[in-house]
Specification:
Number of strands of chain A: 7
Distance between the termini of chain B: 44 Å
Structural class of chain A: mainly alpha
Order of helices and strands of chain A: HHHHEEEHHEEEEHHHHHH
Strand content of chain A: under 5%
Distance between the termini of chain A: 32 Å
Largest sheet of chain B: none
Strand order of the largest sheet of chain A: 1-2-7
Largest sheet of chain A: 3 strands, antiparallel
Oligomer: heterodimer
Radius of gyration of chain A: 30 Å
Number of domains of chain B: 1
Chain lengths: 403, 380
């Protein structure tokens, strides 16, 4: 461009001269540096002051610092845990691991159930059936307006008010719902079942590969080879064959009433049951609204155009509407998953021992509040980040590819 | 058109009702309730379930319910009939006995009119704030004045009112105080944080704001309340100690500000860039530009999500139960622990749920109406 300018009037124009920063209030760069120094200085000062107070207070109260307590014996009873835990010998590190796993157990199962229930209710609100649309609308409006903690306490109160095990005398039920929780038949897991599960995994991968090649064939020739016989054969037939070849073991242990309690089978404690029930029902009401608005965000013309092309109603939903609705649904859904995970900390109010409850017990015993709260915050930050990362990855995968 | 056919039509119009298959309740039911086999089955199953639930609830809540219990010779209430009805009928008599405690907690019985006036003042404050005629500078003055009057009424100690220390407050006023004072302090803070997060000239401030918002949004409120309860005393110098209520209030303000900041930031980001550029071109300073041009427009855009966030906080104040502050939910839990009314919990939970739902429903329908109005003015 040198030599010739676009506009002759600009021939003599020059760039504004570059000046260094001037030590004057009129200079924006100078101002911004002063402001930032001031703000950062104040914050650092406050933090230093708080840290100073804290270290003195800890000294005065003879509270130890550091994570040394983790290798001490915990000594607190924990009602349910996914890993082996013994109050007499297990350490605090173990107890905290139990707490983290319990939080994970609530959050993971809760997210899955809330998504399923929320999607069903969200679609129900769009139903042409007046009764279904009204019931789901009332569900959403009611449950969203009541604090989740109140709902948890309500369900917990109801579960505690159930009759005790001894009142089930003579009952031959396979499932017991008493004030000590939900008792389900347990299933004897053996090697053959693990192999069958592995066979199912192989079948799943095989079916996916077959489906992909069938799609490729459809792109090339216009007709799609049937997928379902392969799917049935690989995903049901293969595991059953493997299981039968290994002797077809099958053992179910039913809960039975013995004395004053029910023994055998698996237990879902009333605390876990109430927590899960409360969180799932509450979060589902939010997810339902997200699903509904996501589906409604797809313009009507998309439905009509797809129908005009002669697509099957199922295909319209699967190929046209859902991919577009998902883009609207995923970001708010992510924040609902995060909310459910964070709300699982309400376990502390009904005595389910999650990470908040166990850390709370710990800091009440040894006074190490900073470490206790730090562990809680770190746990939830890791959970939140993992959910966000996973959902962002999923969102990027399903995002509309634009030119 | 056939001419002969047209000629035979009588000049008088045919006044005949449309057939029942397209018009009237039967047709409505056919299209909306019994449209196909699956729809009919669903309608019948759900309809039966609703009728059954309704029947059960009326049996429990009205027909078998105990509304009054007689007083014994000593003046105490005799809950025998309630105990007899347990599991079959509701015991509304317990609520009749306990409603003052549920609403006002341990606030001195003779002084509870003051707490009652405070509730009314809060309601009036919300009502006035919802009116667009007050969306100007006078609103800040109204809020300050009302909150001061509420403080005076609750504490007392002046104008001949007995002094009531904070640990005797309880019930609905605590819930309203935590949420309203929380909003009053969190909102200005959130605007500052949102502006800081959007700052282009102050990177250090931006980093601080981002850290604050993401850290707070990453942890549950229960953990923050815990922190305020056990860590704040450690942070402060010896001898300085805040009341538990104030500690919880601080936690709620910090929590609310982080969420509100994201809403405000959304509004600022949604505003067309031309507004800020035009203000710059006019030579306005940063604060003139922000206070007169961008912020008023951005806030107007985000009124519905702001109200929704506020509904969330209103519900979340119930979490102070975990640190033992006597708010509406905690006072109702305490009322249930009364040995006289043993086993009465569902009735009290229903009462509390109705109170919470009434507040939240009012706010959410207000938010929807504002949204409709905004959409109308945006439509061309």
């Amino acid at each position: 461009m040198s030599g010739s300018t676009i506009d002759p009037r600009l021939a003599n124009a020059r760039a504004a001269p570059k000046r260094g920063m001037q030590l004057s209030w009129a200079d924006p760069v100078f101002r911004s540096i002063i402001w930032q120094t001031l703000v950062v200085g104040v914050i650092v000062g406050v933090i230093w002051y708080l840290a100073h107070n804290t270290s003195r207070n800890l000294e005065v109260r003879h509270i130890a610092t550091g994570l040394g307590f983790l290798s001490n014996t915990a000594g607190i009873p924990i009602a349910e845990s996914l890993v082996a835990y013994d109050p007499a010998t297990s350490t605090w590190a173990r107890a905290i691991l139990v707490g983290i796993l319990n939080t994970f157990k609530v959050a993971f199962v809760g997210v899955i159930l809330a998504t399923i229930l929320g999607t069903i209710i969200g679609i129900g609100r769009l139903s042409k059936n007046w009764l279904v649309a009204k019931i789901t609308a009332v569900y959403v409006e009611t449950l969203r307006d009541i604090p989740v903690l109140l709902q948890l306490l309500f369900w917990y109160g109801i579960l505690q008010g159930l009759p005790g095990p001894r009142e089930f005398k003579g009952s031959t039920s396979a499932v017991f719902l008493t004030n000590r929780g939900l008792r389900l038949p347990s299933f004897g897991w053996e090697n053959a079942h693990s192999w069958a599960l592995l066979a199912f995994g192989v079948g799943l991968v095989g079916t996916m590969l077959w489906n992909r090649s069938a799609n490729r064939k459809q792109d090339a020739t216009g007709t799609k080879p049937a997928v379902w016989p392969v799917a049935v054969g690989l995903m049901i037939g293969l595991p059953v064959l493997v299981w039968a070849a290994l002797g077809a073991p099958f053992a179910v242990e039913y809960p039975v009433l013995k004395g004053f309690n029910i023994v055998g089978g698996n237990t879902v404690t009333p605390e876990y049951f109430a927590l899960l029930l409360g969180l799932v029902l509450y979060t589902a009401s939010y997810i339902a609204e997200i699903v509904r608005s996501g589906i409604q965000a797809v313009p009507k013309g998309q439905w009509e155009a797809a129908a005009a092309l002669g697509l099957h109603p199922g295909s319209v939903l699967k190929l046209i509407v859902l991919p577009q609705a998902m883009r609207v649904i995923i970001p708010p859904m992510t924040s609902q998953f995060l909310n459910l995970t964070k709300n699982s900390s309400l376990a502390v109010a009904i005595g389910f021992q999650d990470i908040v409850s166990i850390s709370g017990t710990m800091l009440n015993q040894n006074g190490q509040a900073i470490e206790g709260v730090g562990i809680i915050m770190l746990t939830f930050l890791v959970f939140s980040l993992s959910i966000s990362l996973f959902m962002n990855w999923y969102n990027a995968r399903i995002a509309l590819v634009e030119r | 058109m056939n001419n002969t056919a047209a000629a035979t039509v009588d000049s008088a119009p045919i006044r005949e009702r449309p057939p029942a298959s397209v018009y009237g309740p039967v047709a409505w039911a056919r299209t909306n309730l019994f449209n196909g086999i699956l729809s009919s089955i669903v309608t019948l199953v759900f309809g039966a379930a609703i009728l059954w639930a309704l029947y059960g609830f009326i049996q429990w809540g009205v027909i078998n319910a105990v509304w009054w219990v007689p007083a014994t010779a000593t003046g105490a209430l005799d809950p025998t009939s309630c105990r007899a009805a347990h599991g079959v009928g509701a015991c509304w008599a317990a609520i009749h006995d306990k409603w003052r405690f549920i609403l006002f907690g341990r606030y001195p019985y003779e002084e509870q009119w003051r707490a009652g006036i405070c509730i009314a003042l809060f309601l009036a404050l919300f009502y006035v704030s919802a009116d667009r005629r007050f969306w100007n500078k006078s609103l800040a003055a109204i809020w300050t004045a009302t909150l001061i009057v509420i403080g005076v009424l609750m504490w007392g100690g002046v104008f001949g009112m007995v002094y009531v220390p904070q640990d005797e407050w309880g019930g609905l006023p605590i819930t309203l105080i935590l949420s309203t004072f929380g909003l009053a302090f969190a909102f200005p803070l959130s605007v500052l944080v949102a502006l800081g997060r959007r700052s282009t000239t102050l990177p250090a401030v931006k980093i601080l704001c981002v850290t604050y918002v993401e850290l707070i949004r990453g942890v549950p409120l229960v953990a923050l309340l815990f922190m305020a309860n056990v860590m704040l005393p450690l942070f402060l110098p010896d001898g300085v100690n805040f009341d538990k209520l104030i500690r919880a209030q601080v936690a709620i303000i910090l929590f609310a500000a982080a969420y509100l900041a994201e809403v405000v930031r959304g509004g600022l980001a949604a505003l067309p860039k031309g507004q800020a550029e035009a203000a710059d071109a006019l030579g306005l300073t940063y604060w003139q530009k922000t206070m007169k041009i961008t912020l008023p427009q951005a806030l107007r855009l985000v009124i519905p999500p702001l109200v929704n966030t506020f509904i969330g906080f209103f519900k979340d104040t119930s979490l102070v139960l975990t640190i033992g502050i006597l708010d509406l939910l905690t006072s109702s839990k305490t009322a249930m622990a009364d040995p006289v009314w043993q086993g009465v919990s569902t009735e009290i939970y229903i009462l509390i749920a109705v109170i919470y739902a009434a507040f939240c429903y009012t706010m959410s329908s207000y938010s929807r109406s504002v949204e409709r109005k905004l959409n109308r003015s945006h439509a061309r």
